[in-house]
Amino acid sequence: MIEFTRWPEEFAARYRQKGYWQDLPLTHLITRHAENDAPRLSTATKATATVNSTAWWITSPPPLQRQGLKRGETALVQLGNVAEFYITFFALLRIGVAPVNALFSHQRSELNAYAAQIEPALLIADREHALFCR
């Protein structure tokens, strides 16, 4: 289990009462639509693409698991605001790996600091980022 600090109970109760928290995992956003929709993902660098959510939702986790990722581990993710970020984020959640998301503008010192703290099992980054394209 990854250590974390819980919200104070009085805040948690208030957020639930106001409907801000529904006690559903984030992956519920995908699974509730997986059989019904083909959501549109759009980025500034790519044309809008229709993605069959059931297909990528079902097929995305196995490649990550083949990398040796296990439930309860962490992955350090540094991707821009592109469709691949969201697909990666939800695929990691689905297999129980905690994504720690670094800003795309973070450089070596920030990534090293994250890595020292969380000891990620995997780094997922954009090969076109200046740190990785040399």
UniProtKB/TrEMBL annotation:
Species whose genome carries this gene: Klebsiella michiganensis
Keyword field: Ligase
InterPro entries from the UniProt entry: AMP-dep_synth/lig_dom, ANL_N_sf
Entry coiled-coil feature ranges: none
Enzyme kind, highest EC tier: ligase
GO molecular function annotation: ligase activity, forming carbon-sulfur bonds
Name assigned to this protein: 2,3-dihydroxybenzoate-AMP ligase
Domain spans labelled AMP-dependent synthetase/ligase: 64-127
This enzyme's EC code(s): 6.3.2.-
